Amino acid sequence: MYADTETIRRVLKETGDTWAVVGLSGNRSRAAYRVAEVLQRFGKRVVPVHPKAERVHGEEGYASLADIPFPVDVVDVFVNSELAGAVADEAVAIGASAVWFQLGVIDEEAYARTRAAGLDMVMDRCPAIEIPALIA
Predict the structure, then answer these.
(1) pTM for this structure?
(2) What is the C-alpha separation between 77 and 32, in angstroms, rounded?
(3) Cα angle vertex 134, ends 130, 136, to 5°?
(4) Which runs of consecutive H residues, i.e. helices, occur in the chain?
(5) CA proximity to 60, closest of 79, 74, 45
(6) Which residues contact 46 (CB under 8 A, 6 or more apart)?
(7) How many Å apart are CA 9 and CA 32, to the nearest integer?
(8) Cβ-Cβ contacts under 8 Å for 38 (sequence gap 6 or more)
(9) Would you state the pLDDT for residue 134?
């Protein structure tokens, strides 16, 4: 189990409302696009992070976490497991409070590093599934 109920609740309700969504593009058929819509519906500011740096859901996009010129509370990761660890390390470097690896994104070493750095972390879960039950 990579996230207990208390950690999920804390990240969704107390950690902050600025979520950088790594892998979010304007492709409406991708899960990141739909999850970002749900997060916005529940009051989260969604910041797209994608090499294209395109505007999505009305928010300016950035090519990397380091390019975001304001604080980020949570980094939501939609890249494959092989790339996710580097994103978690970037989240630590920019001072995020939490990292969330989406369903199917698993890197146990990144989980351990992120937790050791003092961040909350949720792995192999989806905030769009978790948030309605906690905040609705």
Answers:
(1) 0.95
(2) 9
(3) 110
(4) 5-13, 31-41, 81-94, 108-116, 127-135
(5) 45
(6) 19, 21, 24, 36, 39, 40, 56, 57, 59
(7) 21
(8) 127, 128, 131, 132
(9) 83
Q: Order of strands, edge to edge, in the sheet holding 120-122?
A: 45-49, 18-22, 74-77, 98-101, 120-122
- Looking at residue 38, its amino acid is V
Quick: pLDDT tens for 89-102. Answer: 999 999 999 999 99
pLDDT digits 0-9 by tens, 42-101: 999 999 999 999 999 999 999 999 999 999 999 999 999 999 999 999 999 999 999 999
Residue 14: partners with Cβ closer than 8 Å, 6 or more residues away: none
